[in-house]
Amino acid sequence: MPPGCGRRARLAAGTSCRLQGRGDEDSVRLWLLSHLEASPGNQRFLEAAREAGHEVRRIVPAELGLLLAPAGGGERLRFLLRGLPLEPPDAVFTRLGGSAPDGAFDALRQLEEAGIPCVNPPGALALARDKIATSQRLAAAGVPHPPTAVLGPKSDGVEAAVDFLGPPPWILKLPRSTQGLGVVRVDSLASLRSVLDMLQHLGQRVLLQQYVREAAGMDIRVLVVGNDALAAMHRRAVAGDEIRSNLHRGGVAEPIALSESLAELAVRSSRALGLSVCGVDLLPGRDGPVVAEVNGSPGLEGLERATGLDLAACIVSALPTLFASRRGQTTGEGLP
Is residue 137 part of a domain? Predict the structure, then answer.
């Protein structure tokens, strides 16, 4: 990566990570695969990619069609955009978070099957946007994580979950949610039973987590790109009784210097889910930081504003390395 983009580059306001003097031979035909409309993060990525000399366009998954044929039958895969033939890209950068429609992953899986490197890949994104799967992977990798109980729609395990987690309050989460939605604090067993009755009547599985009292409405967001933790900010909920520090929920942010231990924990979390670019949310626990969530489609606007870093350019500068790594892991043999 260029100077200013490595893990040891701290948060100096105004630091730029832009590429210098990229030649045409380094340019790639790039898709930004994203359902997000009017997204500042999308706009920043497109600007940085074009400034770096790449041919880039945003592709809306709902507008993308596929024509498939059995292997050995000539041209096996063609793409359509709004019904018209579309030349496939050299590589794909994804911004598909928890709000992405399931159909977006059909196209992404097919791109990977065709041998086109995708960052992030579909399997890792699917894990990251499912909080149950995320908790399972973090636990399996030994990553510090709040104790978690998963309760199904017909589960009678409330008492066992409460015995495991300890006394209230608890944090209840829906498996798929974004920007702090679908996350509530539960302060009593009676309230927990009421919420579970409603959600389980709808067939909804839930996560119940031990409340990290030391956090008290604060967390740390770390941006990880490849094997590097690039930047971090401290987020704090404004309302005294609010547990969600997300900037979309009115939280405020300030930059912090990344310690080696925080950077290492963030990178371990990213690796546990197989992500190349992600945002890792850490809570200050009694025995050290714990990982609350991992976002496979992190926003850039708030972190860039807080740190003064050109993080979109940092991501773009890392793409050749990330794509090269993905080429060795794709399942397909490329387009005929």
Answer: no
Question: What distance in Å separates the CA atoms of residue 294 and residue 282, rounded to the nearest whole number?
Answer: 9
| Residue 4 domain-assigned (yes or no) | no
CATH number at residue 80: 3.40.50.20
Rounded to an integer, what distance in angstroms lies between the CA atom of residue 121 and that of residue 111? 10
DSSP assignments along 90-157, one per residue: SEEEEE--TTS-THHHHHHHHHHHTT--EES-HHHHHHHT-HHHHHHHHHHTT-----EEEE-TT---
Quote the mean pLDDT of the chain: 84
- Domain final position from 182, 210, 238: 210
Q: What is the pLDDT of residues 297-311, one digit of tens each?
A: 999 999 999 999 999
- Residue among 281, 297, 298, 253 at smallest CA distance from 146: 281
- Contact (Cβ atoms closer than 8 angstroms) between residue 260 and residue 10: no
Residue 198: CB atoms within 10 A of its CB come to 10
pLDDT at residue 119 is higher than 50? yes
Residue 11 has pLDDT above 70, yes or no: no
Alpha helices (runs of H) in the chain, residue ranges in sequence order: 40-51, 103-113, 122-128, 131-140, 158-165, 189-201, 260-273, 301-307, 311-327
238 and 156 inside one domain: no
Q: How many domains does the chain have?
A: 3
- 281 and 230, same structural domain? yes
| Antiparallel, parallel or unpaired: β 77-81 and 64-68 | antiparallel
Q: How far apart are CA 225 and CA 241, in angstroms?
A: 33
Mark whether 88 and 118 lie in a shared domain.
yes
Domain range enclosing 197: 147-210
